[in-house]
Write a structure and sequence with these properties.
Layout: H1 20-36, E1 46-47, E2 63-67, E3 73-77, E4 83-85, H2 87-100, E5 106-110, H3 116-128, E6 134-137
Parallel strand pairs: 1-6, 2-5, 5-6
Antiparallel strand pairs: 2-3, 3-4
Helix pairs in contact: 2-3
Keywords: Cell cycle, Cell division, Cell inner membrane, Cell membrane, Membrane, Transmembrane, Transmembrane helix
Protein name: Tol-Pal system protein TolR
Subunit structure: The Tol-Pal system is composed of five core proteins: the inner membrane proteins TolA, TolQ and TolR, the periplasmic protein TolB and the outer membrane protein Pal. They form a network linking the inner and outer membranes and the peptidoglycan layer.
Amino acid sequence: MQTLGRTRKRRKLKAEINVVPYIDVTLVLLIIFMVTAPLLNLGVDIQLPQSNAKSIQNDKEPVLVTVDQDGKLYLTLGKTPREAIEADALVNKVSAFVRQNPEIPVLVAGDERVDYGRIYSAMVLLQQAGAAKVGLMSQPGDGKARPR
């Protein structure tokens, strides 16, 4: 039998992967991450002491917030004696003091046995009070870290 002059061509199958959709998805994800990355600033700006750090020399007496072993807060403003204080009163007093003296150093001293979350909460309270920079206080050591 003869065909009527038409011959059918068979198409060859391509064994290639189409990467265009993958490139599109990658570019969209890249744009999403570039837009959202600046919005994820969740940290607290603190300066942690080095192992061989020297003490800070200031002319002004700092605002000192102390967190004891039980998590209680104590406030020392300038040369006044240390007094126990509640969280809301701490925010009010430090806010008023920092408004009068914006360049005053603000320090947090925490007992080494207290949970870090309590010290972090004290730092959040100081941030709410308007303290621009908050430092952590430590005792000078022998340079060796102690395991827990």
